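I hope you will forgive my troubling you with a question about protein structure. Here, with my thanks, is the record as I have it:
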Amino acid sequence: MARTKPKTSEKEKPAEIWDFIVIGGGPGGLGAAIYAARFKMKTLVLTKQLGGTVAFTHIIENYPGLGSVSGMEFAEKFVQHAKMYKIPIKEEEVLDVAKKGDMFSVKTHHGTYVGRSLLFATGTEHKKLGVPGETKFVSKGVSYCAVCDGPLFKDKIVGVVGGSDSAAKEALFLARYAKKVYIIYRREKIRAEPVTTTQVEKEKKIEIISDAIVTEIKGDNFVTTAVLEDVNTKKRRELALDGLFIEIGGVPGSSLAAKVGVKLNEKGEIEIDRSSQTNVPGVFAAGDVTNGEYKQAITAAAEGVVAAYSAYKHLKRAAIA
């Protein structure tokens, strides 16, 4: 009688090895995955938020070839394009990464994945004001996403803290619902793109309060006022509000990259070269988490594409060596 081989348990099976593990599901990560698939690299995408934060943008009008689309529609186009190549996309938050010889291990709640190269397209997390009342009134008038919560403030008075293009667009979106929208900015003029600035100036519901910072958020069960301080005179006053939307930029999601020795700059951004390569061989980065000066969906996608090509060349060199 022929002997049958003993069955191996799941734990005894060797780990599946991926050529390219992408951490992040926004334009940078999915753009990289699409090109990696075209290069016939065995690619895996792990992401906490499929589509990335761009999915929560009201309107996108600066991505060449698409005209005017909602953030959700824009993100869906990237997701569907990636799925066209049958790229495995797992909505799993990455908890830890480690370098083991020439390989990298990536741990989530569901397991550990092993790859020959990595891409960090982990974006940013919303920066907080850090003032009294902010934490207390989160979801009780304090929000970091106009698209998510804007409709809840129909015929209300709201404020937007920040002067970037994103902040201006948040204000324009909120003007569709609120009866009054204040843009509160610490400088003399907002620094939105000229087209966005013109739209803000034409919107009668929007009023810009310049040279002001929020020092405290007050309320009972919900937000009722924000304490403003003039940056020049230091005088304070209270502004009656039903809601306050905070759009003051983001904190780079680079802590995982630092665990494998990736170099960060003073802002905590991942330093990359023109090949989207970090200082660690086989580790690449793209999008808002990097030290790129212009942070837009199109630059994130471009950096991701470059990263995929760089990873492809890295693996070819490793195979020859």
User: Anything to note?
Assistant: The radius of gyration is 23 Å. The helical segments are 27-38, 71-84, 146-149, 165-174, 194-202, 255-258, 297-320. The chain has two domains: 16-125+250-320, 128-246.
